Amino acid sequence: MIQAAAPALPTPVPAPLPLREILPWAVFVGLLAVIALYFVSTEQGAVALFADNYVHEFTHDGRHLLAFPCH
Ligand SMILES: [Zn+2]
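ok -> structure tokens follow
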């Protein structure tokens, strides 16, 4: 018994990444990540921009989760 060859499937072609469109969003998301990292790691630890311990208490679990020294 001779098997017929399978029909050729079209080869998927990856779409090119539009770097000029992605770059501003990548910079924006990176900036947001740095700001979030600052509030989790440093705010009301080494530096305090806001009074009281509201930011510290709000980010306290994240601080321990990311292994930043806290207390
Ligand atoms: Zn702590």
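Helices lie at 19-41, 54-58, 60-65.
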